[in-house]
Amino acid sequence: MARTDIQNAQHILYDFFLYSVQTEPVDVVLSTFRRLFVDYTESSTESELPVALYSIVIANSEQQFLFTLKRVCYILINNWGIQRRPEAIKSLIKMFDKQILMRPGVSVILKRLRGWMQDFIKSSDFQDLKLFAARYEQQEHWSSRYTSYLLTPQYLNLNNPLEQREAARSLSSQLKSKFRFDLAMYTAKSQMEVPATTVDNPTVLGEAAINLIKMLLLQPGRFGYENLANLLRKQCDQLNYWDFKRALLHYLVYALPNSPITHTLKDKLPNSVLRLYNNHNPELITEALILRTCKRVVDCFTSEDGEEPSILFSMFLAQGNPLVLVILLLKIALFCPHVQSHLELRIASLIRYYEAYSEEDCRWVINFFEVFRITFAVYASGTLYNLVQVSTEAPTASPLSTYRIFSQLRDHHLEEMAANFRSQVRQEKPIRVAQVSSEIATISPNMPEAIAS
C-alpha cells in the first residue's frame, strides 16, 4: 500500500477522534474507541473508521499502527485533560486490560491486530501512557511521586506524536508547579506557632525538609550559587577550551564540605572532565561546546549510558551523600540552564532503573530524588525563598533552629500569608539578616543527619 494511502487513513482516524472528543459525551467516545481497537467490529455506524484501520493493518506496518494508536490516545488524553475529566483518562487506560485482547483472532487481520495490541501493552510506550492515569490512583508506586521527570523523555523525543509531546510537557509542568506551590505553603505555615490550617508535607523527608531548605539558603563561602555561576560565565569569553575545563572543575568543587566523599571526588573528577573533547582544547570556548561539556559532566554524575547509574553516582550512593551530589548538579544547571532538560532525562533514567525495587530497598536513592526536587524547587524562578535569623541564643539547640524561612510565590494568597507570618515573628523576637557562620558553613551534608529534624 502506498504511503499516502496510510497517511490518509491515519488522518481519518485523527480527525474523527479530535472532533468526537470535543463534541461527544465521554462514554460515546470510549465506546467508539473500544469497538475499533479492542473489539474490532465493523458494526460501528462510523463506517469509515474500520475501513481506515483496516487499511493501516493490511499494510502490515506495525510501526505505523502503533504510531496511530498512540496519537489517537494522546488526542483523547489532551482534550480530557483540558476538560478536567480524569475518570475518562483512567477508563481509556483500563481498556487495555480487556481479556479479549489476549485471545487469538480468527481472521488474518484480527490476529495481526491483536498481536500488535499485545506488543503495545508490553512496551515502554504503554508505560508512558499509564503515567497520565497514575496520578489519580489511590495507591501509587513510589516512583509516581516523580512523574514530572518520567514525562521528560516523552516530550523531548521528536519521534513521538505531537499530541503526546504536548500532553507530557503540560502535565510535567503542572506537577512541578504544584510541588513548588505545595512546598512553599508547607514551608511558610509549618513554622508558625499556631498554623491556621494543616498543610500537608509534599515531601517524604518529614520535618527534615525544612532543615534542608535552610542549609541550601545558608550557602557556604563568599558567593551564592547563582553569583558563582555568573562569575564563571563572565570568564568564558576569555578562555580556551582547556582553561575552561580547568575553571569548571574549580567551580564545581568550590566550597564543598571537607569530607571523605569530597576528597574522593577531587581525585576522580579531573579524569572525567579534562579528557572531554581534547581536540578542541586550543579553541576559544563556544556556547555549543559549553552545552556538550555540561551534558557529559551531568552524565558522569548520573548515568553515562542513560540506563544504568554511573560510577560516581554509585560512589555517592555508597557514601550516603545526596545533598553534595545534588549541589553539584545544581551548579551545572545554574551555569548552563540549557542542560536542564538533559539533566531531567538522566534523572528519569535513574528512576526507571530503581523503580523495580521496593521503597524500603532503595531508601537512599529516594532521599536523593527528594533532595533533588526540593533543591530545584527552591531555585525555581517562580519561588523566592529568604532566610532570616530570629534568635542567637540557642546554646543547646541546632544552629539551624535559629533561622526561619520566608517563601513567596507570584500569588497574592501566599504573599498575604507570608506577610502575616512576618508580623507574627516580629512580635516574638527581633529579626536580623542571616549571616553564614563558620559553624553553619561546615555542617556535614550527610543524610539523614544533616537534615534531620
Task: Give a quick rundown of the structure.
With 453 residues, the chain is mainly alpha-helical.
What this model shows, in words?
With 453 residues, this protein is mainly alpha-helical. The chain has two domains: 3-139, no CATH class; 182-441, no CATH class. It has helices at residues 3-23, 26-39, 48-58, 62-82, 86-94, 108-121, 124-134, 147-150, 152-156, 162-190, 208-217, 225-235, 241-253, 260-273, 287-301, 311-319, 322-335, 340-354, 363-378, 412-428, 438-441, and strands spanning 383-389, 403-409, 432-433. The chain has a three-stranded antiparallel beta sheet with strand order 2-1-3. Helix 1 (3-23) packs parallel to helix 4 and helix 15 packs antiparallel against helix 17. The radius of gyration is 26 Å and the shape is globular.
Count of discrete domains = 2
Our Rg estimate from Cα atoms comes to: 26 Å
Structural class call reads mainly alpha
Assembly annotation: single chain
Strand order of the largest sheet: 2-1-3
End-to-end separation: 66 Å
**Biggest sheet record:** 3 strands, antiparallel
Percentage beta strand: under 5%
Helical proportion? 55-70%
- Dominant shape: globular
Residue stretches low in confidence (pLDDT < 50, at least 5 long) are 412-418, 420-453
Topology:
Layout: H1 3-23, H2 26-39, H3 48-58, H4 62-82, H5 86-94, H6 108-121, H7 124-134, H8 147-150, H9 152-156, H10 162-190, H11 208-217, H12 225-235, H13 241-253, H14 260-273, H15 287-301, H16 311-319, H17 322-335, H18 340-354, H19 363-378, E1 383-389, E2 403-409, H20 412-428, E3 432-433, H21 438-441
Antiparallel strand pairs: 1-2, 1-3
